[in-house]
Description:
single chain; alpha/beta; Rossmann fold; GMP Synthetase, Chain A, domain 3; six-stranded mixed beta sheet; globular; disordered N terminus; binds guanosine-5'-diphosphate
Amino acid sequence: MNPMPQAVPTVVIVGRPNVGKSTLFNRITGQRRAIVGDEPGITRDRLHGLTEYRGRHFELIDTGGIVVDDADYIPGQILKQARVALDRAAHIILLVDGRSEITAPDRDLARMLLRLGKPVSLAVNKVDTASRDSLAHDFYSLGIRDIFPVSAEHGIGVDALIEHVTAGFSAATSAPAVTEEPPESIRVALIGRPNTGKSTLLNALTGQERAIVSPIAGTTRDSIDETVLHAGASYTFVDTAGIRRKGKTKLMAEKLSVVMARRSIRMADVVLVLLDASEGVLGLDATIAGYAHEGGRGVIVCVNKWDLIAERKKRAFEQDLRDQLKFLDYAPVLFLSAKTGAGVDRIFKLIREVYESTIKRVSTGELNRFVESLHFEERKIYYITQASVQPPTFVLFTNRKAPLHFSHERQLTNQIRRHFGFRGTPIVLKNKGKKG
Length: 436
Ligand code: GDP
């Protein structure tokens, strides 16, 4: 994955459905909107792009990709859903349709945006040259002083708009560290027994209603992803409706937690396994953690409700946890309290780190040097190649056909980890044996 994008000012496009937000987005960024996501039936619109005008670099966010387009749009709802984007906006562009009347919701939206106390420009779209001036006049009544008639489709007036919007941004002497688009969202699953604090943690991570909520296309209505932008990177918590929905009976809730875990692990890059510090590691925890391990994703163990436990018990708890969940010895353990927020902020950085392990590639050259330094008696290893990522999978070319015994596999895996890191990701080894 790319390094963290350097902080650049953010410009946010807001407007009701069908006014031309994504056309304007594409026009400004000079990109076609990419549909990303490789799971069948799941498409995700790109929400933001990095772009530049006269050397002034900025990030553009199209809230059309955030707010679910709805004919009966409610301005308050748009604001709520786009909140996370608006909070970091250096400039807001309200886009309206110049060919239709100003509606009451347009007025409400304008008023709410102005109340944020940030610079707001009004772009009046779909205006042809003839009726330009007279039409744009009506729009002064929205109370936004800087008005720009544009045609996003034909590119008319867009330069004037962007010149104004970026006027206060400093022109970089060199391009920011990352000139390509920011990395796509890292997909994160929260799993764990009932009452370990999944929904409390989800609220803490997404800041209640500030997350970008989007239904997963092609699945039932109660499958919902929530995306959060944090320190310039994007995190999508997958399949969160099930976290918020609670089973009626204890048995039901327990079964549901296992079903949920198995389903959302498949959709995730990184899995957070929640434990309840006040209860220790129970059988069901081990079952659920086992699925996380077998899923081949990045894993972080989150020991929640740490506010109920004395700090000096940390060591003993971790030891107990390592004994019970031996197979997760590669996973970092985080002690936190979803309720008080202690430790919660550290999750994001750890997710990135673990994600990067899952997609890390080691060159054959490095692996050759590693093989030379290797202490391994059980069979002769000629060389090793990394066949794939997520999880990192290595093929060992050896002098024996029999698969590696568990203990030898472990011995090798540990040496690979010691040498190359791979914190938080399972590693898969495959033996390819040749006689002689
Ligand atoms: P879920 O079933 O895993 O989604 O669990 P909930 O988020 O509903 O939490 C279950 C209970 O644990 C609720 O009463 C929460 O208030 C409580 N809880 C969650 N996190 C913490 C925490 O960090 N500390 C404490 N003391 N209680 C917590």
